[in-house]
């Protein structure tokens, strides 16, 4: 039973990593850039939802919608102002810019909301499912996060396979120049990618803070880094890979904490990552592509 | 295109700098306000300088200490006699910023220092004060590292080891639990310090520690596996020598997994009730060891609580009381040592050290009676147990 409880806890933590990793991997897959500000867009989304429910007393669906809209606008703005001018610059310049944007967002949040932590009210109004006479407890946040993961994963897969914009995205991800020659508006496509990625970040932020209800300007940074690890683990650029990577990372972390040592858990998590990357450099589900470095 | 991108990246850099500067501005404003409210009118004043996190995740402590000290300074200045001027600087709970704040206060003409509110910055500032020969009495930096190897730094709060020992004794004497689980932050000096002493004292007292779990600052989100292990070990009391932010997550997650042991915290738990939007019912029944009980019926406590509520709209925590006591202890020592305003910080320091360590210097304040100090700077007073009932702290004995 203990094993099962740990597994459930691992899935609970992993599903949060997975939903953040989906945003990372989506932007990387198409724009071929690591958006390190993703974790902080998540934080902004969580703050938006917090303000809407706590200060404006709006119902939860409206609050999530507001968070999504604000994050979408924010994502498109960040892309347009910070990343677009660097489209032809080296990948290092974009990477540093992304880190800069990340600090910028954290400091803005510090100015607007202050640094005292706030307690986020879970958007899931039910407690937990209790099985086997209280032996096994699954929180509704975990169930909803896993479901959201599956819906988003399928949605994204269908969108990129079926829709015109999705096809354009895949074309841009394969070869920007060729896509442009074929009449695809590369800039617009990348903007849409960021818009979708940021809307997902808002959902991730709300679910992250529902599971772990402390909200401060640095809330997004550590989960963001772990989720990035998850995305690399699963094969960055691969949408099912992000979900698999996130879940596995969460499960490994909880098992390492429970059965080996709470002090070594992070070392073990990143050790596993290194081993996986040594054996399979593109990650678990990553495609083998010849990259020009 | 290239030109344009250069201009834009410059603009971004400018925006970033602006953001960083704006951050500083905010901190300064708070400090200025702090300064304004308690500046004495007389020209000949003793300048007291305090450092603490006025912004940042530990801001609750810093601001509580600041307001507590302000109330004390205002009361002293009303008496006539020796006049004080108080200035608080922000350190955001960061050692480097604390040293900068300390230098700023020195430039301002600080004669006596109230140290830092939190441990990490205070260790850094303590060695600075020692080389400058500046007397420091910290309200709440509780690690022994703060007073080790320096003869000029004194504490108003218990040291971490003291808290650990006192917790174990208290749990045993009040029969609060027999099987004890512990979660502590092993990346934090404060938490680890308390834990180490607690575990040895618990053994001496015959308390059974069934499970010890740790976390770090970087993994302070998910406590499910720690709680799960403690629950599986059948602990009936969970000892939490940690700060209130992770403690609030532990309380929420324990509630979700329907695990309800007795929770026992130390002074870092103080502040959990002022966390914005926190569901106070989660903290119902949480016990903590603290030297200050806000519902005590003596006049000193009553007056202080009323004044604090008037200023802040909330019940003061022990950080406010510790800072209040700091100012009054310094005031008493200054009267006793006949220290004059304008005396050099060095001479003030030597005199204050001899007063504080003299056998007949006893201080009665909010946080204890007949409080004395050892030559190492450690305080001696009795802790009080508190329990949270209906969203307020109530004394346990």
How would you describe this protein?
- The complex is a heterodimer of chains A (293) and B (397).
- Helix content of chain A is 72%, strand content 4%.
- Chain A has helices at 2-31, 38-54, 60-83, 91-113, 140-162, 164-174, 176-181, 186-211, 221-234, 239-260, 265-279, and strands at residues 118-119, 128-131, 136-139, 214-215.
- In chain A, the strands form two sheets. Chain A has a two-stranded antiparallel ribbon. Chain A has a two-stranded antiparallel ribbon with strand order 2-3.
- In chain A, α2 (38-54) crosses α9 (221-234) and α3 packs across α8.
- The longest helix of chain A is centred in the first third of the chain and has 30 residues, at 2-31.
- The radius of gyration of chain A is 19 Å and the shape is globular.
- Chain B has two domains: 2-158 and 301-380, Response regulator (Rossmann fold), CATH 3.40.50.2300; 161-290, 3-Layer(aba) Sandwich (Rossmann fold).
- In chain B, the strands form four sheets. In chain B, strands 7-6-8-9-10-14-15 form a seven-stranded mixed beta sheet, sandwiched between helices. A three-stranded parallel beta sheet of chain B has the order 2-1-3.
- Chain B is α/β, with parallel strands linked by helices and 397 residues long.
- In chain B, α2 runs parallel beside α10, α3 packs across α4 (119-132) and α5 (160-173) packs parallel to α6 (189-205).
- The interface between A and B is large, with 51 and 47 residues.
């Amino acid at each position: 039973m203990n094993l099962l409880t740990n597994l459930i806890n691992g899935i609970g933590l992993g599903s949060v990593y997975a939903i953040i990793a989906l945003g990372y991997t989506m932007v990387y897959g198409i724009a071929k850039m690591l958006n390190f500000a993703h974790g902080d867009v998540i934080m902004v989304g969580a703050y938006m939802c917090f303000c809407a429910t706590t200060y404006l007393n709006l119902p939860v669906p409206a609050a999530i919608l507001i968070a999504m809209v604000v994050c979408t606008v924010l994502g498109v703005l960040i892309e347009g102002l910070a990343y677009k001018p660097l489209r032809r610059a080296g990948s290092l310049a974009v990477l540093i810019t992304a880190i800069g944007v990340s600090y910028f967002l954290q400091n803005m949040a510090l100015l607007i909301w202050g640094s005292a932590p706030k307690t986020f009210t879970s958007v899931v109004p039910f407690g937990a499912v209790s099985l086997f006479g209280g032996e096994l407890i699954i929180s509704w946040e975990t169930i909803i996060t896993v479901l959201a993961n599956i819906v988003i994963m399928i949605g994204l897969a269908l969108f990129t396979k079926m829709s015109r914009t999705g096809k354009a995205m895949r074309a841009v991800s394969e070869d920007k120049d060729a896509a442009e020659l074929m009449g695809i508006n590369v800039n617009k496509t990348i903007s849409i990618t960021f818009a979708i990625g940021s809307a997902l970040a808002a959902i991730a932020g709300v679910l992250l803070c529902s599971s772990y209800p402390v909200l401060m300007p640095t809330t997004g940074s550590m989960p963001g880094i772990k989720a990035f690890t998850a995305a690399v683990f699963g094969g960055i650029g691969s949408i099912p890979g992000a979900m698999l990577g996130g879940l596995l990372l969460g499960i490994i972390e909880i098992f390492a904490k429970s059965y080996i040592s709470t002090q070594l858990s992070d070392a073990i998590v990143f050790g596993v990552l290194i081993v996986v990357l040594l054996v399979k450099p593109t990650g678990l589900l990553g495609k083998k592509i010849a990259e020009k470095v | 295109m290239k030109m344009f991108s250069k201009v834009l990246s410059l603009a971004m850099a400018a925006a970033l700098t602006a953001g960083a500067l704006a951050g500083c501005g905010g901190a300064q404003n708070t400090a200025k306000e702090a300064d304004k409210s308690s500046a004495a009118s007389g020209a000949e004043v003793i300048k007291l300088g305090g450092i603490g996190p006025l912004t940042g995740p530990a801001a609750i402590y810093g601001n509580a200490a600041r307001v507590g000290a302000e109330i004390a300074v205002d009361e002293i200045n009303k008496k006539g006699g020796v006049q004080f001027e108080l200035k608080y600087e922000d350190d955001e709970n960061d050692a480097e910023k604390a040293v900068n704040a300390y230098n700023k206060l020195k430039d301002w003409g600080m004669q006596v220092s109230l140290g830092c509110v939190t441990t990490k910055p205070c260790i850094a500032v303590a060695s600075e004060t020692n080389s400058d020969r500046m007397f420091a009495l910290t309200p709440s930096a509780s690690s022994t590292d703060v007073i080790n190897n320096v003869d000029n730094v004194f504490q108003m709060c218990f040291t971490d080891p003291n808290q650990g020992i006192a917790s174990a004794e208290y749990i045993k004497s009040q029969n609060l639990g027999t099987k004890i689980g512990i979660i502590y932050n092993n990346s934090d000096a404060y938490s680890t310090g308390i834990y180490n002493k607690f575990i040895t004292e618990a053994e001496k007292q015959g308390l059974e520690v069934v499970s010890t779990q740790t976390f770090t600052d970087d993994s302070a989100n998910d406590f499910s596996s720690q709680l799960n292990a403690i629950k599986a070990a059948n602990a009936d009391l969970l000892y939490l020598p940690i700060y209130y932010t992770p403690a609030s997550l532990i309380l929420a997650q324990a509630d979700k997994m329907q695990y309800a042991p007795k929770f026992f915290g130390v002074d870092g738990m103080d502040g959990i009730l002022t966390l914005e939007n926190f569901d106070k019912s989660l903290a119902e029944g949480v016990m903590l060891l603290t030297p200050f009980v806000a519902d005590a019926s003596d006049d000193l406590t009553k007056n202080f609580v009323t004044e604090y509520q008037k200023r802040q709209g909330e019940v003061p925590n022990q950080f406010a009381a510790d800072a209040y006591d700091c100012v009054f202890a310094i005031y008493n020592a200054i009267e006793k040592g006949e220290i004059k305003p304008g005396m050099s910080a060095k001479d003030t320091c030597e005199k204050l050290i001899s007063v504080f360590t003299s056998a007949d210097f006893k201080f009665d304040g909010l946080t204890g009676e007949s409080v004395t100090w050892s030559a190492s700077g450690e305080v001696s007073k009795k802790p009080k147990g508190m329990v949270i009932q209906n969203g307020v702290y109530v004394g346990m004995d």
